[in-house]
Amino acid sequence: MSALGAQARLAVREVCALAPSLGLLPPPSRPAGIAAIVRVRDEEEWLEPAVRSIIGFADHVVIGDNGSTDRTPVIMRALAREFPGIVETLTMPDADILRLTNALIERTRHRFIVRWDADFVAQTSGPARITRLRDWLLALDQRRYYIVYPRMVEVTGDLWHQDPTHPTRGDAHCWTASDHVRYTYNPQGYEAPKIPKWYAVRAWELPCFYHVNVKSDRRMFLSHLWKRYLLDRSRPTDLQSYVDRVLKTEFDGQDFGSAARSWTQGWVRRLVPFDATRYPAHPELLRPVLGRPRYRLRVEDGRVVGRETLEDAR
Q1: SS3 sequence of 57-109
Q2: Which fold does the domain 3-213 belong to in CATH?
Q3: What is the rounded distance in angstroms from the CA atom of residue 225 to the CA atom of residue 246?
Q4: Domains of the chain: which residue ranges?
Q5: For residue 233, is pLDDT > 90?
Q6: Mean pLDDT score, 166-181
Q7: Interval 191-224: pLDDT, tens
C-alpha cells in the first residue's frame, strides 16, 4: 500500500473512531485498568523478569502455557503464588497459537489488554518507565476505542548487540477490550488482532521496554523456522515435518542441535553494537544479568564472527 493510501485509511479510521463518543456505538464497558496476556512455551530464560517488570503497570497478568518442557510451569506457579489476584495461569498444551491467545483474552477483565511476550522486559524506573504509558492509556477518552503500538528496543544475540534493520520495533499490541477484537491470521500468515474500523490508532514512541531476543541456539533457530513456516504457502500440516524438511535440504541432514548452532553462528554476523547514546539504558531487571551473561558474541576486528554460550552463567 502506498503512503498516501495508508494515510487515507487512517483518516477514515479516525472519523469512524468518533462513533462511540457521538452515541452511534456503545462505549467501552469494562472498568479502568490494564490486563497483560503472556503466551509461553519453553520460556524459562526471561519469563520471570518479563512478568516482574509489569507488576505495577498491569492490574492482571494471564500467562498461558502451550506445552512447555522446561522450567516455565514452575516459574509460572511461583509468580502466581507471589502475586495472588494479579498473576493467573492457564495450561493449554494442545491449542494452536490463535486458540491460546483468544482464550487468554477471554480471561481478562480490564479496559485495556496488552500482548506481553515472555521476552519483553519493561523499564521500571527513569523517564522511560512503563508506568508513564499506563498513566497515558488511562487518561485517554473513556468513551472511545483504541489500538496502541508501544515502541520497544530490541537486543539480539546477546545483551549488547542489535539487528541494524530493526533496532527498535513498534509491533506490540495494546487495545481497548471488546468482544469484537480477537486474534486471526493476517494475510502475511502471522497471528494478529483483527481491529474494527472504529478503533483509533495511536503510538507510544518512547521505548519503554526491551525485546530480549537472546536465547539458546535451539530456541532462536526454532523461532526462525516458525516464522518461515507461517509464511510458506506450501508448508506441511505440522511444524515438525517442516523442520525435518529444512534439516534435510538445507543442513545436510544434521540433527536439530547441530543445525541450530550452525545457523546461529552465521546469523549473528549481521549484528551491530547496541548504541547506548540513542536508547534508554538496560531495564533494572536486566542489569544483574549484565555481569554474568549466558551468551556473548565474539568480535574480531570490529565485526561479529560468532557467539559463545557460557554454560555456567545463570
Answers
A1: CECEEEEEECCCCCCHHHHHHHHHHHCCCCEEEEECCCCCHHHHHHHHHHHCC
A2: Spore Coat Polysaccharide Biosynthesis Protein SpsA; Chain A (3.90.550)
A3: 9
A4: 3-213, 217-309
A5: no
A6: 95
A7: 889 999 999 999 999 999 999 999 999 999 999 9
Q: Using CA atoms, how far apart are residues 22 and 238, in angstroms rounded to an integer?
A: 48
**186: three-class secondary structure by DSSP:** coil
Q: What is the DSSP letter of 143?
A: T
| pLDDT interval class at 4 (50, 70, 90) | low
Cell of 55: 507488576
CB-based contact 186:192 (threshold 8 Å): yes
CA–CA separation, 53 and 47 (whole Å): 10
pTM of this prediction exceeds 0.85:
yes
pLDDT computed for residue 234 by the predictor: 86
Residue 142 pLDDT exceeds 90: yes
Half-sphere exposure of 93 (CA within 13 A, CB side): 6
The amino acid at residue 86 is: I
Distance, in Å, from the CA atom of 261 to the CA atom of 266, rounded to the nearest integer, reads: 9
CB contact at 8 A, 245 and 278: no
Task: Compute the half-sphere exposure of residue 96: CA atoms within 13 Å on the CB side of its CA.
Answer: 11
Q: C-alpha cell of 164? A: 541494524
- Please give the single-letter amino acid code of residue 191: E
